[in-house]
TrEMBL record:
One of its GO terms (cellular component) is cytosol. NADP(+) binds at residues 164-166, 234. InterPro entries: Aminoacid_DH-like_N_sf, NAD(P)-bd_dom_sf, THF_DH/CycHdrlase, THF_DH/CycHdrlase_cat_dom, THF_DH/CycHdrlase_NAD-bd_dom. Keywords: Amino-acid biosynthesis, Histidine biosynthesis, Hydrolase, Methionine biosynthesis, Multifunctional enzyme, NADP, One-carbon metabolism, Oxidoreductase, Purine biosynthesis. Catalyzes the oxidation of 5,10-methylenetetrahydrofolate to 5,10-methenyltetrahydrofolate and then the hydrolysis of 5,10-methenyltetrahydrofolate to 10-formyltetrahydrofolate. The lineage of its organism: Archaea, Methanobacteriati, Methanobacteriota, Stenosarchaea group, Halobacteria. This is Bifunctional protein FolD. It comes from Halarchaeum salinum.
Amino acid sequence: MTHVVDGNAVAEDVRDGLSDAIGTLKAEGVKPGLATVLMSDDDASATYVSMKQRDCEEVGIEGIHVEIDPDAPAEELYETIDDLNTDPNVHGILVQLPVPDHVDDREVLRRIDPTKDVDGFHPENVGRLVAGNARFKPCTPHGVQKLLASADVETDGKDVVVVGRSDIVGKPLANLFVQRGEGGDATVTVCHSHTADLESHTSRADIVVAAAGVPEFIDGTMLKEGATVVDVGTNRVDADTEKGYRLTGDVDFESAKPVADVITPSPGGVGPMTRAMLLYNTVKAASDLADVDVSLP
């Protein structure tokens, strides 16, 4: 029987495991703090930020939220980041992307103090990840690793295909899979929009990670019997519903499930883990900055 991994349950385990670490920090006078910065009038971005703030409240992390008018000069955002960098009550900084066109998103990422860069996208942190000495693993790739571990999926010696080469998921996840040690030691192929014959790669893979942002483009005919399938995508497609759309992943779940041994759904798979690992990174940042040893889940 196919094991459908419940991302909500695994994420709850991570949050529960953070409780002791947060308690240890508070006993030393340190309350982990996460600052979220929103410079957008996009409803989806506002929803994501509010969810992250709610997550913080539930686990005992101090949530600090800053909103900036999307028409404001870019310098206002940069100065806000500078202020948060020097605030001793802020241990993690997350600027919700995308930012307006007149703002250089690369400068936004460079501006964040790398010791508070809980997304893991500062150039210094990207370099540390590639070198095998990550300060923070990016939240979604780390969440994928945690999901695989929860399902006892071994990566050592396995053929892994990552479909998608984004800086947020595809590239860092491929790097994690090739690292030495737990969750790594895999042979990795990264596929993308210029891959000539995608199915020739996915059909031989022990583990397929779909992270291209294309609704249901991977189906059961493209998979090896007994594969592990991780669906990172969350896409809106038109539907005859009250909202006028439904959410779906990059994998055609119904055709893939009978073929796979292990599969993550979307929604309800990787998404909750991304949010949980943001909390994880915030607690780790607080521990590192305060020089207080804690046990992380």
